[in-house]
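A note from the maintainers: we've had questions about how concatenated examples are separated. There is no special marker in the raw files; a new sequence line simply starts the next protein. For clarity in this README we add a label.
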Amino acid sequence: MLPATRLVCGGCGRGVDPRADAPFRCPAARAGDGIDHVLARQLEPAHLGADREARQLFLHDEPLPFRRYRRLLHSYQTATVVGRRSDAEYAALVTRLDAAVAAVDGRGFRDTPFAPRPALAAALGLGEAGELWVKDETGNVSGSHKGRHFFGLALWLATHPLSSEAPFAVASCGNAALAAAVVARAVGRALRVFIPPDAEPAVVARLQALGAELAVCPRRAGESGDPCYLRYREAIAGGAIPFTCQGNENALVIEGGETLAWEMISELLRAGRELDHLVVQVGGGALASACVQAFAEARALGVLDRLPRLHTVQTASAHPLERAYERVVERAVAAVLPGSAGSAAPREPLARALWLRETAPESAIAGALRFAANHRAAFMSPWESTPHSVAHGILDDETYDWLAVVKGMLATGGVPVTVDEATLVEANDLAVRSTGIAADETGTAGLAGALALARAGAFAPGDRVAVLFTGVRR
């Protein structure tokens, strides 16, 4: 019997043996080979039963999300099929680790609210039949969605033990660091956090209270890229375990984030609804990558009839994903309409995205993505200047999970959106006044993107749109 999941590199196609000790990065990756080596978990729907059985995964009333969706997790599949653990043993492990997290943070993982917000729908001009749904993660473990990613990884580590002496490592100065520190403390592991010199004092104090070891990382002259990430990479080379939300560093963090989207799908099924648009803010890209994967898998399982158009949001101060997307699209358009004929393609981004999805041969899109996967530096590179924004949580120099997210946008006809500071502030004010949810500007950046999309005519009256409020104001 084979597991219902497997890990495959999106860059070179190399698979990972499910018995491997640490399937975090592609084993074929070599420095300087130019390939975007990022492992992705693939689901084999046939191994999970008929459509009706798969649907029950999403409608089960189990209160702990990591227990309810456990059959979809790679850690569960490898633990029960390869490791010969029983379903009951794995479920008990989830309960035990969730209780340990609650002992540290005062709360464990439960479904977070996902519901229509009529005032926001009206602000977007969606009409009487339109809906704007908000997934509110501000009440989640450590105050954001980030803990989901780390808990998914902690489950794998608990069923596939590595050296207990090797520290965990993460590069972050905000929600990811705080969530990593909570989960690391809960499972009794040392954590090294690589932070910038201007990290918020309140965050630093909380990290110290949780027992994290902090390493301050100033920028070095002549060095390209986020210095925290570079110092983190040095720690990983020295034997630390990548306990991070960057999917290129550890593929297993993505599926923990999928629980957020699975909860959304469950609620939509109960309400008899489907989304037309999903707007997701992007820093390193793990959240958007998790959403892409979760919705695609739900459709493959027969749970959804169609996919929403995925739109992504970055700030005008730094938008490496938008730049990479445009380069992939240029190549795809050139494959469909070579030479000067390419000027006949729609120039407006929304119209061009639909034109590509509806008229371009699959081979043109696949070819552009394949070329990008094998020439990463030509598409995704560190942002050249130091960015500044009120939405500081999405100012990553690179979008590490960029290729999966670009693929998701191309497949659904979505587009990347860049928003200015005024729109970020406007969206946050609207969100807090309309919902009472105490999210910060990073947390409501998806709504800022939705405002920009509405003003560009992306939504039709009656459309159903969803955004994520990902982090609480501290």
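[label: protein 2]
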Amino acid sequence: MDFGWSTEQQALRARVEAFAAAHLPADWENTASLSPGSQAVTDFSKVFCPRLAEEGLLASHWPVEHGGGGASAWDHFIVGEVLWEAGEPRGPQYYNVNWIGPTILAYGTAEQKERHLARMLAGDVIWCQGFSEPSGGSDLAGIRTRADRVDDARYRVNGQKIWTSYARLAEFCFLVAKTGPARRDVSVFLLPMDRPGITVRPIASVVGDGDLHEVFFDDVEVLESERLGPEGKGWEVIRFSLDYERVGIPRYALALKTLHRAVAELQAEGSFGPDAELAAATALAQCEAARMLVYETVDKRMRGRPDTGSASMARYGVVLAERAVADFVLDWTPHLFTGDAAPMVATHHKRAIAAGLAAGAAEIQLNLVARDVLGLGR
């Protein structure tokens, strides 16, 4: 099997790299070392993403009839690899093109597509994700936030979400709420964040400013027309979106860059001996394994084949790879982690922490692999 890129794909990578070099400021790494949800990175995303859209690179993989370029998912991953390695200048807008937009494309009404997709394609709107809750963490079946019907056109939402990335700056929330008595009676709503009754409180963390929040919903009105998919059938919508989200960020790209940066430092010092070589080779192997697992998931998507747990395997592989690189840096080049010479090294470490929690905790991914891949049941 040939794992190489075609001539056209190599040309696309070079084009994206040239675009990033031309449009990122000289001190970009200092800004990129902040959280994607920070004010500075979010503001820059609203400058960078429209330029990316003009170049036809923001959502090239979306269908032509909905404003995209009709390119393959591979093209989107090439763009994502280059930009994530560069520090993700799309900021929180990677949500839009990676998984929220595709989910609206798959399940949205004509009105919802018209309202939301154009702004995503323009690169000027921020979304957040209302999934996790204090009582259940990553267990979406155990959520308590409720959307109770008021009449045929409205619901009233009450509850709390936690660890909500980008909530402070978001205009919309991809919200999951209970709409019936059964455990899996959940629905998805595309909720404007300026509705009365929504309170957002930032959570200070090592991950970075703007990444984590508590969100409270007190008698928040949400419209029937803002529900995505049928009432009580939200699990299909959620699983679709999670399959995209779990592999949407090519985290291995920044991990590989960080690993090579640390190895280059050791080589320059003349201290890249056998023990360091073995540790670096182990971390490199884990990064390459994660990349191949992600590629398997993309290949299945391209061929229209069922996921069967590959997205969860890929996500866990990425978590292990990022941890391996972070451990290598701390063990062999800790001065890169604490100094100012390479700000993205510390940034990789913070993002590696988040990888084990976002899109479902690592333990949740292992449960899904046990069930969907190994057939071990619940």
